[in-house]
Amino acid sequence: MDEGSVPVAEDPGRRRRVHGMLKLYYGLNEEGKAPEQPESLDPCDINGPHFDPELYLNKLRRECSLTELMDQETCMVRQIRSLDSDMQTLVYENYNKFISATDTIRKMKNDFKKMEDEMDCLSANMAAITEFSARISGTLQDQHAQITKLSGVHTLLRKLQFLFELPARLNKCLELQAYAQAVNTHRRARCVLQQYSHLPSFKGIQDDCHAIMDKLAQELRQKFRDGGSSAKDLSECVELLLQLDEPAEELCDKFLSHARSRLESDLQGLEAEIRPSLPSPASNTDILEFIDRGCNEFVSSLCLVITSYQELFINHAQKGELLHVFVDDLAARYFMLVERRIQEEKGVGDNSLLVRALDRFHRRLQAVAKLLPGSAVPNKGTEIVIRAATERVKQYLSALQSFYMDSLTDVRQALATPRLSVAGTSVAGPASGRDAPTSLPELLSSLSASILNQIKSVLASVHLFTAKDITFSNKPYFKGEFCSQGVRESLVVSFIKFVCQSSRQFCETAGDKGGSTPPALLLLLSRLCLDYETSTISYILTLTDEQFLVQHHSPVTPVTTLCAEAREAAQKLLNHYVKVQGLIISQMLRKSVETRDWVNTIEPRNVRAVMKRVVEDTTSIDVQVGLLYEEGVRKAHSSDSSKRTFSVYSSSRQQARYAASYTPSAPMDTNLLSNIHKLFSERIDIFSSVEFNKVSVMTGIIKISLKTFLECVRLRTFGRYGLQQIQVDCHYLQMYLWRFVSDENLVHFLLDEIVGSAAHRCLDPAPMEQSVIEVICERG
Predict the structure, then answer these.
(1) CB pairs under 8 A, 24+ apart, for 231-238?
(2) Domain Exocyst complex component EXOC2/Sec5 N-terminal, which positions (predicted)?
(3) Cα–Cα 20 to 30 A to 688, which of 80, 149, 182, 736?
């Protein structure tokens, strides 16, 4: 829609502008009044009263050019048209308003006419009422004074009747044991009887009432001394005795004494639940029922005693001190019973019952804080809750440790089960894992998952202490120290350290032959600790920090420290595994060397069975380690590694060459050659730490085995055929062992040393031809 189609009356800006121009034209201000300004005497002022058109036109013709005159004319015509249009608009708007005002006045005239009729009727009615009222007042004027006098006499007689019937009323209340009503009734009449006690009749009523009230006070004292009533009844008795002007100090002491006896009976009931007469566990109530009973009986009664004491003895001196001592003494005994009952909660199955009980215990004690400001009872209750939570964390740590040890026992049983079915093998032999090698990853996965799930379950149970609907969770301890030191450090970190320490103990307690610890368990635990170092520890601590919103205000154990400890445990376990497996194979080799007569042995025709067993066991260990660790890095192998000729064979041949001239100085030459050969060989560290891969582990085991074989050979004396048997055995080992190690030269060097030592210890060093050795080994 274009601008020209918009009605003028609907534009508020235009309307204000029009009104402004009209006010300007009529010389009015914003309030509709003409401003007090001096009149302009200029005849050329077009807005002034002395405006002269002729003079104005002459001035314009004289001062303006033709173009300016035409512009002035155009502007003036536009203003005249605008004023005419605005005038028409105002007339139209005011016309509508005048019509509307006329209709409104006509309607108001009709309404006022009806109202005038109603007002006339109301005025007539009021006049009639006034006439009737005046007539009635005139009629009763003579009897009004008499009626007022009789009413006063009636009221006085009723009061006298109440006084004369007062002794009977008090006796009736005494019979019905309505002591409060009797005291209130006597208090209403006591001032009147005291005022008119000089009259004989009132004196007699007063004496009778005093006698009755003395009897009532005596009954109240007796009821108070009996103490068999509830705390509420005792409070009523004390209140009535105070109204009867009994000494406040004496009543205060008696009130606290009776309240103590009742509260002590509640404590005895709670103690009976802790030490039931029957030893059956079913006779004990659960912790929530115990706390409920203590809160509903003891704490409620204690709060009632505090309230009653403050209401009754509010003006009594030493009120606060006596009450604080009284409350603190009984609360201390109650707290002792609560702590004893909490200590009986040893099971860690369902933690919600204990948390709900502690929450209810803490919540009810807040009533004592409101009734008795400054009391130490709520703070001591909070300390009990904190100690209970701390003790609960210790119990959960112990439960986690027991679960871990039980899990290890299950793993050991699973590892030991297939051993029993292996015929002809040692229970502690390295071949024990051959029947069920695939179970190792499953056992590791099951063990790791079960431990992690148990940790999550424990964290969920402990998290109940910090739930939002628990009243004590907003305490500073549970927002800070409990989360960081209690849960993170004392529970999670302590358990991780326990796992590492208990794993290291398998290395310390096992003997040289592995003791009672299966080698597979050492391998599995080393992998478990390594997994903890790489991922599990970070995951558990992150989960704990997120779940408990741990804020590290106090020093905590860094993740890197725990990871380093786990890696150290994994390294120690793996080193010990290598040592145990190496010593097991070494034991077989040692027995095979020590139990044979190497001087008088027959010419070798086969590889000895023990060498075949060594290769089989080494293969089994290789498979076992490969189930849990990666392959590792090997050096490049030569194409004829399995058919390599030992360098020591040439040494043996050198000894044969020099056999014709074998003199006492010949051994010196042979030793010199051997030592020179060793100088140019790389030093081998037998018991060095291994890396976390299969090749490194197998290299360590083979080094220990061959080194033991070498030392046993050095202690024996060999004949010709004994040396040849060593040659055959070493060549057979060379055919298979090179593929297990990271560097085949290590196997070559050790086997060279073994054959060289045998040749050095041989009485008739005549080595077997290499082709014959290969035929025997391939046939074997």
Answers:
(1) 231/259, 231/262, 231/301, 231/304, 231/305, 231/308, 232/304, 232/308, 234/258, 234/259, 234/308, 235/304, 235/308, 235/311, 235/312, 236/179, 236/180, 237/179, 238/308, 238/312
(2) 46-270
(3) 736
Q: How far apart are CA 245 and CA 255, in angstroms?
A: 16
Eight-class DSSP state of 780: -
Average pLDDT value for residue range 719-727: 90
pLDDT the model gives residue 5: 40
Least reliable range by pLDDT among 3-7, 470-474, 505-509, 570-574 = 3-7
Assign 421 a pLDDT band (cuts: 50, 70, 90).
very low
Query: Which of 710, 686, 681 has its CA nearest to residue 699?
Result: 686
Contact indicator for 704, 721 with CB cutoff of 8 Å? no
Burial class (CB in 10 A: 0-12, 13-18, 19+), 76: exposed
Closest CA to 323 of 365, 373, 266: 373
Per-residue pLDDT tens digits for 607-661: 888 888 999 999 999 998 998 888 877 776 555 545 454 444 444 333 333 333 2
In three-state secondary structure terms, 718 is: strand
Q: With helix as H, strand as E and coil as C, how does 766-779 read?
A: CCCCHHHHHHHHHH
The answer, yes or no, to whether residue 9 has pLDDT greater than 70, is: no
Percentage of the chain lying above the pLDDT 70 cut: 71
Helix pair 377-416, 352-371: axis angle to 10 deg: 170
Classify 98 in phi/psi space as left (phi over 0), alpha (psi -120 to 50) or beta: alpha
Supply the DSSP symbol for 597. -
Spatial distance between the Cα atoms of 583 and 514, rounded to a whole number of angstroms? 9
Closest among 597, 617, 770, 608 to 705, alpha carbons compared? 617
Distance of alpha carbon 527 from alpha carbon 521, whole angstroms: 10
Identity at 694, one-letter amino acid code: K
Whole-angstrom Cα distance, residue 255 to residue 246? Answer: 13
Long-range contacts of 641-646 (CB under 8 A, 24+ apart): 641/738, 641/739, 641/744, 642/734, 642/735, 642/736, 642/738, 643/735, 643/774, 644/734, 644/748, 645/770, 646/730, 646/731, 646/734, 646/748, 646/751, 646/752, 646/755
Q: What number of other Cβ atoms are within 10 A of residue 154's Cβ?
A: 10
Integer angstrom CA distances of residue 79 from 75, 238, 336: 6, 99, 102
- The pLDDT of 64-72, averaged and rounded, is 87
SS (H, E, C) 305-358: HHHHHHHHCCCCCCHHHHHHHHHHHHHHHHHHHHHHHHHCCCCCCCCHHHHHHH
Neighbour tally for 465: CB within 10 Å = 26
Which residues, listed in sequence order, are joined to residue 762 by a DSSP beta bridge?
Answer: 718
Phi/psi of residue 48, nearest 5 degrees:
-90, 165
Residue 114: CB atoms within 10 Å: 9
Query: From the CA atom positions of the chain, what is the Rg in Å?
Result: 57
Output the pLDDT for position 174.
66
Query: Mean pLDDT in the chain?
Result: 77
Q: Give the Cα separation of 759 and 766 in Å (integer).
A: 8
Neighbours of 686 (CB within 10 A): 13
Q: What is the largest CA-CA distance in the chain?
A: 178
